[in-house]
Amino acid sequence: MVNTRGSSAKSKDKKALIVRDVVNNDHDSLSLLPAQGEAISAPIVSSYNDRIRPLLDVVDRLRNLMLMKEGIQLPTIVVVGDQSSRKSSVLESLAGINLPRGQGICTRVPFIMRLQNHQSFVPEFFLEFNDKIVSTDEDNIANEIVTATDEIAGLGKGISNNPLTLVVKKNGVPGLTMVDLPGITRVPVQGQPENIYEQIRDVILEYIKPEESIILNVLYASVDFSTCDSIRMSRQVDKTGDHTLAVVTKADRSPGGLLEKVTADDVNIGLG
User: Fold this and answer.
1) Which residues sit opposite 164 in a β-bridge?
2) How far apart are CA 125 and CA 90, in angstroms?
3) Quick check: 90 pLDDT over 80?
4) Taking CA 244 as the corner, what is the angle to CA 90 and CA 194, rounded to the nearest 5 degrees?
5) Integer Cα distance of 135 and 129 in angstroms
6) What secondary structure does DSSP assign to 203-272, as a single string?
7) pTM of the predicted model as reported, rounded to 2 decimal places
8) Pairing, β 111-117 against β 177-180
9) pLDDT tens figures, 188-246
10) DSSP secondary-structure letter at 172?
11) Reduced to 3 states, what is the DSSP secondary structure of residue 143?
């Protein structure tokens, strides 16, 4: 009989050692946090990049080790929304780049966007997937993302839970790391499995369920927010709304009462 309990314990111990090594190696980065009561010097953006960005880099390195699959949770901004909510537009505005567009599901894998403010005015772009690092440029990012997605999830319109990471080093971008998940669709189109909704739901719940996750709901202004699947999933794991944010797109399309819609009790957006 195979002692699975012993092998599982060894695996967790090994992961714990890796985590400790990564954190120890970045001890100097961690020490950049201000002591309690210490004022952060202006300008705030420079201070943020100097003090907080190193911590985000540590989290990114831990995420690359796939620790979440071992039950070790990491703080994550998770972007969710229905297929027509214009999630790509929100991400494009933050990164200042063009992402793949088209009919149907454009994001077919967990898409990790790592933004780093770059002092040089010459931007750098890298895709990380399947243990590979692929350098690209601003003109070819969208095509390279499509090619990488096809390699991860296969040709067609199916999805995969294996992530694709885009590293953007560009002057002026906010220092953020976000995970964009496939847009929610209930009706499969040609080339999609019949249970596409259930597959997408399971991927989303895996990422938003941990308390360490901040759920960023992207909502199209003209729809009834309380009936959006992304809101329902958020409420399922975050009943108080303490970990949930909202971005409303196409606000000019709202028939009125937008503030009332966002602040309604059945929408449950606690972070704003």
Assistant:
1) 111
2) 19
3) yes
4) 70
5) 12
6) HHHHHHSSTTEEEEEEEETTS-GGG-HHHHHHHHH-TT-TTEEEEEE-GGG--S-HHHHHH-TTT-----
7) 0.73
8) antiparallel
9) 888 788 999 999 999 999 999 988 888 999 988 888 888 889 989 999 999 888 888 88
10) T
11) helix
Q: Can you state the angle between helices 44-51 and 53-64, rounded to 10 degrees? A: 40
Q: Which amino acid appears at position 156 of this protein?
A: G
Distance, CA of 162 to CA of 99 (rounded, Å): 19
- The two three-digit tokens of residue 183, written as one number: 């847009």
Q: How far apart are CA 55 and CA 61, in angstroms?
A: 10
Model pLDDT, residue 52: 62
Does 102 score more than 70 pLDDT?
A: no
Separation of first and last alpha carbons in the chain: 53
Q: Is cis: bond before 43, omega within 30 of 0?
A: yes
State pLDDT tens for residues 28-80. 433 333 333 333 334 444 555 566 667 667 766 666 666 556 666 667 889 99
Pair of tokens at residue 162: 């294996």
Pairwise CA distance, residues 61 & 190, whole Å = 38
- Pull the structure tokens for residue 145: 């993302």
Q: CA-CA distance, 57 to 237, in Å (whole number)?
A: 27
